[in-house]
Amino acid sequence: MSVQTTQIPIAEGFIDLGRGDPQLALLPLDLLRRAAEARLSQPDNSFLQYGPEQGDGYLRWALARFLARDNTAEPDPERLFITAGISNALDLLCTLLTCAGDTILVEEPSYFLALSIFADHGLRVVPLPTDGSGLVIEALEEALTTCDPKFLYIIPTFQNPSGHTLPEARRRRLAALSQEYGFLVLADEVYQYLNYGAEPPRAFGTYAGFENVVSLGSFSKILAPGLRLGWIQASPTLIRRLANCGLLTSGGGLNPFTSAIVRGLIEDGSLEHNIERLKQVYSARVLRMEDALRRYLPEGKFQRPDGGYFFWVRLPGCDTETLRRAVRALHADFRPGGLFSSASGLRDCVRLSISFYDGDEIDRGIKRLGEAFHAS
């Protein structure tokens, strides 16, 4: 009997450059083992009980200190809410704040699995154009004259899939528009700390003066996805609404056991060290993929990402759904651009990831992609 142990099983020899999860070798098993042993060796066993609805208080204090790297002052732990990751946060926010048929705004392209969550809630999705610097604010201003969105979902830093980062000036204007028009900004900032050059603009969590701005963070990319642990940073009003929802008054706060372990990794500096290790590994892979694309697929149009996981490559005149079938026949894969469109567009684009494979495998995967493209 075969037992599936990961979300996306993969055959030996197959190179799926579309995968957006970290390589198993990069998951810090020893680090987490030591943190778990340290926590379990202590007499305090309260983290085995139902936890406070807002999330473990010690973790929120430690997390506030960690997030202070983006702030002139340490964030208020009372503005933090512990989640089971960004997907959980999005689903919870949709449940509490929207009804089927409500309008929301997204970037074009946008994270395709977030679009699935919005579809689950029956939301009307309106796409907004992006350029090499992310969301086009003028397009947002125009859309706000004709629709009344409940929220805008945006990935402002090293966007999935485009890799683009929204500049500070656009962020300030976006925050101001959210106040003026009364919609929420849900900023998915999962890649905020994976920069491979200059520091990105400050996270949306630092916009504490803008009550409509909500920052969503996660330990999935900077520690391990299996922890299922993240956070929301938002206004006290929204935090109270989240903490008082029926899911949490019934079951208690999310992941108190995991919270107790991760708290120790923040407090002793292990999280920071792990982030630096990941940045070194991923920055080398970015250069390797760029080199492979220029050698094997010179027709591709792309902008090298300064952080995050993804290359977004345009292949003019190519239907990437058709190309994907040819690439799979060569035992490789990617994610076609149409997945990331809420307007049935982007069919000549592909998303490629540097997170799951080392440099040699990245090279082989891009070579197979190039062979399929040139044979078509």
Provide the fold topology.
Elements: E1 15-16, H1 29-40, H2 57-67, E2 80-83, H3 86-97, E3 103-108, H4 112-120, E4 124-131, E5 134-135, H5 137-143, E6 151-154, H6 168-181, E7 184-188, E8 213-218, E9 230-233, H7 236-243, H8 246-251, H9 256-267, H10 270-296, E10 310-314, H11 320-329, E11 332-333, E12 335-336, E13 349-353, H12 359-375
Parallel strand pairs: 1-11, 3-4, 3-6, 6-7, 7-8
Antiparallel strand pairs: 2-9, 4-5, 8-9, 10-13, 12-13
Plain-language structure description:
The protein is α/β, with parallel strands linked by helices and 376 residues long. Helix content is 39%, strand content 15%. It is built from twelve helices and 13 strands. The protein has helices at 29-40, 57-67, 86-97, 112-120, 137-143, 168-181, 236-243, 246-251, 256-267, 270-296, 320-329, 359-375, and strands at 15-16, 80-83, 103-108, 124-131, 134-135, 151-154, 184-188, 213-218, 230-233, 310-314, 332-333, 335-336, 349-353. The strands form three sheets. It has an eight-stranded mixed β-sheet, sandwiched between helices. A three-stranded antiparallel β-sheet has the order 10-13-12. α6 (168-181) links the parallel β6 (151-154) and β7. The radius of gyration is 21 Å and the shape is globular. The model has no long low-confidence stretch (mean pLDDT 95).
